[in-house]
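Researcher: We plan to redesign the surface later, but first we want a full-length starting point. Tokens attached.
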């Protein structure tokens, strides 16, 4: 792996190294497509009462299925995830997403 590859993998390394973003991985409840999306912890969050944050995302897969997957995330004052809900799909892990992508 040369320097550029190393840099690229650092930039694309996912949420562990992404300090300003939170990655969500979901599986469409209708067609099973794995979808990922990034929530920007500084631009996508709206402040609720009591000082915590909320982010809503609507995800649509890239295949022919137009199911809308609604994701609602709650973060505490330190921008750490404190709650999550999903309608139209299921949360999966980054590993499950990678496995679905490469199959
Ligand atoms: Zn779908």
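Model: Full-length starting sequence:
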């Amino acid at each position: 792996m040369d320097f550029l590859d190393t840099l690229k993998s650092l930039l694309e390394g996912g949420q562990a190294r992404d300090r300003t973003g939170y990655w969500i991985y979901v599986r469409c409840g209708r067609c099973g497509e794995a979808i990922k999306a990034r929530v920007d912890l500084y631009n996508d969050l709206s402040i609720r009462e009591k000082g915590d944050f909320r982010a809503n995302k609507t995800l649509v897969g890239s295949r022919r299925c137009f199911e809308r997957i609604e994701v609602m995330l709650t973060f505490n004052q330190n921008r750490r995830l404190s709650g999550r809900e999903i309608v139209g799909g299921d949360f999966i892990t980054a590993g499950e997403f990678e496995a679905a992508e490469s199959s």
